[in-house]
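Reopening this one. Same input as before:
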Amino acid sequence: MQASFSYSCQKTLKTLLGSLALGCLALALLASPARAGEVAVTDALGRETIVSLPVRRLVVLNSDALEAVRILKAQDLVVGVDASPGTRPWFWGPLAGLPRAGTWREANLEAIVALRPDLVLCYGQRPGPELETRLAPLGVPVLRLDFYKPGTLAREMAALGEILDRKARAAEFLDWHTGLILTLAAIRDKAGSRPLVYSESYSAFHAHGPGSGGFDLVELAGGRNISQGLGAPYPQVTPEWIVSRDPEVIVKAVPSGAGDENARERLERAVRDILARPCLADVRAARQGRVYALSGDLLAGPGLAAGLAYLVKWLHPDLAADLDGRAVYAQYLRLFQDQPLTGACAWPEDR
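Same output, byte for byte:
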């Protein structure tokens, strides 16, 4: 399966994105005007937030939100960013040189106020609630949207398109994204079983647990996370615990992305390191050669459809032998980030 997927697939999703198709068809309802000059948005914490329009100056405190802004071709509105674009100037271009307003964990309040933003975009949980507490008296509004979870990405993209007056561009992205999700779900639904998966975050022995994008994507691909029930997004686990669950597939997230010239080395080393852990030598995933590494940019974020393509292939190889996750990601980058795909983004099956 190459990048030119059939976007007309009508099969109903039965997992996390059960409401995605309906949400995209009702795009205008996802962020509806409260009154002239305002829009009401449901944020990542489930709260209704009123955003005043127009928004002409944005501070963006994480790379997922910044990707979403660039999808909408609204990067000219950004006046401040977190520290992450500066670490990848080859990907972010001029955005990497914008004034720093903190990190995704901790905002620089003085810098934000000095930038005079109409809106600050940040994750649902980070920075903490003190961000609103301290900025609200100064008249600086905050909107918490995640842009990395499969179940809420469509709603949040539609909302941002409304806020930034880029509804047509948001609809274009959601047509592409939803079509791929439905196509991949159709492949997944043909599988007769759901393999057990250990999905590990950047830190060793920290699993993707409930509430993380990596956990949700594995479930959407038709896997069963062994971390189900642990009750935290990134729980620390023990080697003995992994062995006792005996996963059939292991997926390791690696901090790399498009254009990273060291990505292949990092991905390959991540797989070697997993296989070198004595405690994991006898689990089914290691014995059967089903240990994979995937760029973190594909496991969560606006380009997660590409990560889903890799996972569907790895979890259901008999049904998806010709699925080309690399082609999906290259298409996403070309259409919505105006970037070529250079460097590796998965290992060992990076096609």
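So the earlier flakiness isn't reproducible anymore. For the record, Residues 20-170 form a domain with the Rossmann fold fold (CATH 3.40.50.1980).
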